[in-house]
Write a structure and sequence with these properties.
G-protein coupled receptors family 1 profile domain-containing protein, Nematode_rcpt-like_serp_alpha, mainly alpha, membrane, 4 helices, olfactory receptor activity
Length: about 140
């Protein structure tokens, strides 16, 4: 905006950005955010399978890792579509990381679920770690 104001004086300076112009940025933003949480959950699932499966081999580890990675990538890019399901994207926002007015409620629920998922992953990870310590000392 400063560059536009100083050097492009013949063009009007618009402070707001259309929601449709922000789509590529918000897709990457929501895919990145959800990918972190999904991969955290995927690692916990893999750790749980490794802990409780009696026949956990290297081949099984690779298969589970590839499956979980594929699911994480797919879900990460589908998260934006789920949040912006029926949003017309016809408004304006100040920056591209602000959710649109029509989807703000779903975006807030998504972030709330991410916080709850983080606490669940923390508790489950501590439980798996405790179980492994008990088995180690047994």
């Amino acid at each position: 905006m400063v560059y536009k104001g100083l050097f492009l004086t013949d063009q009007p300076c618009e402070w707001l950005i259309t929601e449709s112009d922000c789509v590529p940025y918000t897709v990457l933003l929501y895919a990145g955010i959800s990918g972190m949480f999904y991969s955290q959950t995927g690692v916990l699932i893999e750790r749980g399978i490794a802990t409780f499966a009696s026949n956990y081999t290297t081949t099984l580890s690779r298969r589970i890792g590839v499956t979980i990675s594929t699911v994480v990538v797919l879900l990460s890019f589908l998260t934006y579509r789920t949040i912006m399901w029926d949003d017309p994207l016809d408004g304006y926002v100040l920056t591209c990381f602000v959710p649109s007015a029509h989807s703000a409620h779903r975006a807030n629920w998504f972030l709330f679920i991410c916080v709850c998922l983080t606490f669940f992953n923390l508790i489950a990870s501590m439980a798996v770690m405790y179980y492994n310590k008990v088995l180690e000392y047994r």
